[in-house]
UniProtKB/TrEMBL annotation:
Keyword Oxidoreductase: yes
Protein name (Swiss-Prot/TrEMBL): glycerate dehydrogenase
Domain D-isomer specific 2-hydroxyacid dehydrogenase NAD-binding: 130-210, 215-328
Organism from which the protein derives: Cannabis sativa
Gene Ontology terms for molecular function: glyoxylate reductase (NADPH) activity; hydroxypyruvate reductase (NADH) activity; NAD binding
UniProt pathway annotation: Photosynthesis; photorespiration; 3-phospho-D-glycerate from glycine: step 3/4
Length: 392
């Protein structure tokens, strides 16, 4: 017997039943589904992380598609239940989909959507914010002020690091890593070193210059300033050894689990800053707590944690750690856009639309003044399922 779940229903007579496991920001995503004959059911259960059993109850006997969240375990059990209910589409409201077993989805012929592009700059901005907050000890200073401890300016009060002229290291220079690198290079005139499995040509062109435009380095030189330098490292360890601020932006998979471990932390400069806005398990958090204890000048800014929502023991007590609750993509425009893209992924599969040819070109779907293209914006297993690709 399925557990009772509280839901909010839009367009009760709609032909296609689409379930969202959470209320999502904005209403455009609901309107777009309703206009296309969907009955939309939104789970309003007061429980942050839904279990597999909760979601099975939501899917019920007939369900055409589900919009889900990164906190949910989308594996064999859920894809089997969705397929049994006639469902052909699932979309994470996230770009990362390490919570989804794509092979299981393939087995049941379920399309898996994600939401790249719309969160690139917002996430990079939080990584930049954490970098500054750590470099200038903003959270510690704020706590000191609120505690009524400030009794006058002092030469040694909360002295931090100047970013200008230091080296920023990026591990995983994809969409977000590259956007972050540009912010730190352009905004703070930092030198760049990056490591990725692939060459990030777009990022390199920004620093070195393209044929018709001058590079940022040349621009600085022309203004009588020290030009920035850049380097693609041949190993991740090179980045860890050379950079003053290191930001992690890879996907989470078997190759990136505990990418930063005890040995690699030991390679880093004693006063380095480490930022993580990717996924918690990319860092061995127990090793990190030990490192923070023994290296008080080493600082971290973390948006994600190994066992979310929990922190490993001791992390919350460390003055040299800044911790925020997985809010890197949390700007209004981005979160509403993520909801829209996730809904359109599900709708696109239900309506038999082709898959959009470039999942990074999301603007046509986000333009509130126009109808979105008849395509599913980003389906990660499109190839495996043999789905047609849009000509646009
Ligand atoms: N904290 C948040 O709220 C938040 C928001 C958005 C994205 N994310 C995370 O950030 C990740 C990256 O997002 P994106 O849009 O930039 O993805 P992306 O695919 O554009 O970039 C990921 C990059 O990591 C590289 N990479 C993969 N394995 C690697 C390895 N072993 N070593 C070095 N580099 C490696 C890839 O080659 C790629 O360039 C997402 O998968 C998600 O987990 C978190
Ligand atoms: O992967 C993602 O999109 C984030 O973790 C949430 O925005």
């Amino acid at each position: 017997m399925a557990k009772p779940v509280s839901i909010e229903v839009w367009n009760p007579n709609g032909k296609y039943r689409v379930v969202s496991t959470k209320p999502m920001p904005g209403t455009r995503w609901i309107n777009l589904l309703v206009e296309q004959d969907c009955r939309v059911e939104i789970c309003t259960q007061k429980k942050t992380i839904l279990s597999v059993e909760d979601i099975i109850a939501l899917i019920g006997d007939k369900c055409d598609g589900v919009i889900g969240q990164l906190t949910e375990d989308w594996g064999e059990t859920l894809f089997s239940a969705l397929s049994k209910a006639g469902g052909k589409a699932f979309s994470n409201m996230a770009v990362g989909y390490n919570n989804v077993d794509v092979n299981a989805a393939n087995k049941y012929g379920v399309a898996v959507g994600n939401t790249p592009g719309v969160l690139t700059e917002t996430t990079a901005e939080l990584a930049a914010s954490l970098s500054l907050a750590a470099a200038r000890r903003i959270v510690e200073a704020d706590e000191f002020m609120r505690a009524g401890l400030y009794d006058g300016w002092l030469p040694n009060l909360y002295v931090g690091n100047l970013l200008k002229g230091q080296t920023v290291g990026v591990i995983g220079a994809g969409r977000i890593g590259s956007a972050y690198a540009r912010m730190m290079v352009e905004g703070f005139k930092m030198n760049l070193i990056y490591f990725d499995l692939y060459q990030s040509t777009r990022l390199e062109k920004f620093v070195t210059g393209m044929s018709q435009f001058i590079s940022y380095g040349e621009f600085l030189k022309a203004n009588g300033e020290q030009p920035v330098t850049w380097k693609r490292a041949s190993s991740m360890d090179e980045v860890l050894q050379q950079a003053d601020v290191i930001s992690l932006h890879p996907i989470l998979d078997k190759t990136t689990y505990h990418l930063v471990n005890k040995e690699r932390l030991a390679l880093m400069k004693k006063e380095a800053i480490l930022i993580n806005c990717s996924r918690g398990p990319v860092i061995d958090e127990v090793a990190l707590v030990e490192h923070l204890k023994h290296n008080p000048m080493f600082r971290v800014g973390l948006d994600v944690f190994e066992d979310e929502p929990y922190m490993k023991p001791g992390l919350g007590d460390m003055k040299n750690a800044i911790v925020v609750p997985h809010i890197a993509s949390a700007s209004k425009w981005t979160r509403e856009g993520m909801a829209t893209l996730a809904a359109l992924n599900v709708l696109g599969k239900i309506k038999g639309y082709p898959v959009w040819s470039d999942p990074n070109r999301v603007e046509p779907f986000l333009n509130e003044n126009a109808r979105p293209p008849a395509a599913a914006p980003s389906i990660v297993n499109a190839k495996a399922l043999g789905l047609p690709v849009s000509k646009l």
